[in-house]
Amino acid sequence: MTEQTKNKGSVTIVLFSGDMDKAIATFVIATAAASMGMKVTIFFTFWGLNVIKKEGGLIKGQNWMQKMLNLMNYGHAKKLAISKMNMFGMGPAMLKTMMSHKKVPSLQEFITMAHSLGVKFYPCEMSMTVMGLKKEDFIDECEDVIGAVSYLSIAKETTINLFI
Amino acid sequence: MNYKVDKTIDCTGLSCPLPSVKTTLALEHMEVGQVIEVLTDDPVSKRDLPVWAQSTGNELLGIEEEGKVIKIYMRKAA
User: Fold this and answer.
1) Which domains are seen in chain A, by residue range?
2) Which residues of A touch B25 (CB under 8 A)?
3) Does some domain include residue B29?
């Protein structure tokens, strides 16, 4: 552990959920912690991978099951559902409007801000394999693809661990 | 006020965690010992920014209130 992480602490967050509201909560905590000088790592797994998927591109996946999953689970930071009152997309649209009225950044702005504050993004290798996703399918801000062991080796050194 | 303000950032209308994030980003381009003035109208920031200063080691110089606007002065530490 470096001197900096000892004094200021560090945070690891596992983002399992692909819901917009939960992703925003993740990034609020991540950016606030990073601004306090804490070392922040976000491990994106399963539905959470949608948050860091690149916009556009063909239907991802190698076989028909993966293609079908990615078709139904199509999404990126701009196109996520919310965990409650989604109402076929009306909920997220209204929430985005309400947030912009209150000058709360959008998820994409949060991602850029977190990256410029030095927050590290790691996609989970195992869920990527299951869903047939490749490193190229994710935004450039991502670090290496890592597995559970690498995540745990980071997490055991940190002071705050969250699963969202 | 016995210090010279080197940079002012306007965080009015912004809510948590933006004032502390914007302050962090602004301080990156400032020299050690320079003073930043943060304008905010978010009452939570009045409590959060001193906590932020304490945990980052930057020195809180003072807080002034002018109507709804809260001005927070901090000196960049090494």
Assistant:
1) 7-163 (3.40.1260.10)
2) 116-117
3) yes
Distance CA B46, CA B11 (A): 12
Residue B2 lies in a domain: no
Give the single-character DSSP code of A111: H
pLDDT in tens, A2-57: 445 457 889 999 999 999 999 999 999 999 999 999 999 999 999 999 999 988 77
CA-based nearest distance B34→chain A, Å: 18
- Tell me, yes or no, if B26 comes closer than 8 A to chain A by beta carbon: no
Q: Give the relative orientation of helices A20-35 and B18-27 as an angle to the nearest 10 degrees.
A: 40
Q: Which amino acid is residue A87, in one-letter code?
A: M
| B17 CB within 8 Å of a chain A CB | yes
Identify whether B16 is part of a domain: yes
- Considering the domain boundaries, does residue B1 fall inside one? no
CATH assignment of the domain containing B70: 3.30.110.40
Residues 68-127 of A with CB under 8 A from B: 102-105, 113, 116-117
Domain count, chain B: 1
Query: What residues contact A158, with CB distance under 8 A and at least 6 apart?
Result: A5, A9, A10, A11, A12, A39, A41
Q: Which residues of B are catalytic?
A: 16
Interatomic CA distance for residues A150 and A148, integer angstroms? 6
pLDDT in tens, A137-156: 999 999 989 999 999 999 99
Cβ–Cβ below 8 Å for B20 and A36:
yes
Give residues with Cβ within 8 angstroms of A100, minimum separation 6.
A106
Q: Indicate the pTM of the whole model.
A: 0.87
Q: Show the domain range for B71.
A: 7-75
